[in-house]
Automatic annotation (TrEMBL):
Keywords: Metal-binding, Zinc, Zinc-finger
Organism: Drosophila persimilis (Fruit fly)
Stretches the record annotates as Disordered: 73-101
Gene Ontology MF term list: zinc ion binding
Entries under InterPro entries matching the protein: Znf_FLYWCH
Segments forming domain FLYWCH-type: 17-77
Basic and acidic residues bias: start-end ranges: 75-95
Pfam families noted in UniProt: FLYWCH
Protein name according to UniProt: GL27157
Domain of life: Eukaryota
Amino acid sequence: MFAIQTDIIRKRRIMIVKGTKGKPKLLMGGFEYYRNNSRGSKTYWLCARNRYLRCAARIITCSTTGELVIKNQQHNHEAQPQEKVDSKDEKKPEQDTSSSK
């Protein structure tokens, strides 16, 4: 069962990144989700456009099992191209300034 969940995650291209304010943001299928709540091993995510457009799309992730539950995937707005979402939130890797001898 875990392998199936992993395949689903790979196909949907899910990433968790830091947002502009340093808080975690889940990216999936061109949509952004912010962490709404956490209880135990479950994290509840709401569409980032929830506040502005009343989008009701939700995702629940479980850190212990790797399970991904899509509660509502009906967005009332268009997705952003994934490249645009990625480039906005990705940080460049820090360069190693230490030298080894």
